[in-house]
Amino acid sequence: MKTRNIIACLFLLFATQAVTAQNNAEALIRLMVNQMKSHKNVELDYKYQIGTEGLSTDAQQGKAWLQGEAYKVEMVEQQIISDGKTIWTYLVDEEEVMVSNATEGEDNTPLKLLTSLDENYAATLTGMDAKGNATIELASPIGQYRRITLRANPNKLAISSMDVYMEDGTKLILTIDEMKFDQNLDDKFFTFDTKKHPNVDVIDMR
Questions:
Q1: Which pLDDT does position 35 carry in this prediction?
Q2: Beta-carbon neighbour count of residue 41 at 10 Å?
Q3: Segment 36-61, tens digit of pLDDT
Q4: Structurally, how many domains does the chain consist of?
Q5: Measured distance between the N- and C-terminal CA atoms of the chain, rounded to whole angstroms
Q6: What is the pLDDT of residue 55?
Q7: Which of 24, 40, 47, 102 could share a disulfide with 175, CB 3.0–4.6 Å?
Q8: Which segments in the chain show pLDDT lower than 70?
Q9: How far is CA 175 from CA 19, 70, 197, in A?
């Protein structure tokens, strides 16, 4: 009887710890998302790597901006720009820009993914290092981003890195070097200006 009581107590203890860890993770994610949404815009300097079947590319430098439904992502080989209604995907080396319609609420870039973490993903706290940095596992049964390993500083409410596991098996590794808020950006910043790229072939897919 005593043994059963001890086992029952241990089970309740572990269950309580698991629930607390999950609640802490969800609360932290919610605070970080709310902080980003409280600003007019977010600017990110980051490094990224893409991995498939155990292989990964060299780290490349990128830059991104997010303002409401509008966003702009600059990478070495391409730029993705959206004003919330239209998406321009500019392939730098090919000198082509593909134009398509934006889908409302779709997490079609890792940048927009940042502001939907508290809505679409179940979060669990899986680790905390000596400096107080948290590791959080996020999972979603739907969408192109199925699982995310996120590392963040709870005191600063700042994300330091994300390992994003996509539906097709690709892994995207993002390391955030710097995050700025409330930059002076006009609406034209989130559009593709063909006048500045006269030699670019425009492919309208709408």
A1: 84
A2: 19
A3: 888 999 999 999 888 776 666 678 89
A4: 1
A5: 70
A6: 60
A7: 47
A8: 1-23, 53-57, 104-110
A9: 29, 22, 30
Residues 6+ apart with CB under 8 A from 114: 33, 36, 42, 66, 159
**159: Cβ contacts below 8 Å, ≥ 6 apart:** 32, 114, 150, 151, 152, 176, 179
Residue 15 has what pLDDT? Answer: 32
Rg (the chain; Cα; Å): 20
CATH of residue 147's domain is 2.50.20.10
Question: Can you give the residue range of the structural domain that contains 187?
Answer: 2-204
CA pair distance 78, 135, nearest whole angstrom: 30
Measured torsion, CA atoms of residues 137, 140, 141, 142, in degrees rounded to the nearest 10:
-150
Q: How far apart are CA 195 and CA 161, in angstroms?
A: 36
The pLDDT tens digits of the residues spanning 114-143 come to 877 877 788 888 888 888 888 988 888 777
Is the Cβ–Cβ distance between 190 and 81 less than 8 Å?
yes
Encoding tokens for residue 78?
């391409």
* Number of other residues whose CB lies within 10 A of the CB of residue 12: 10
Q: What is the pLDDT of residue 96?
A: 94
What is the Cα 167 distance to its own chain's centre? Answer: 15
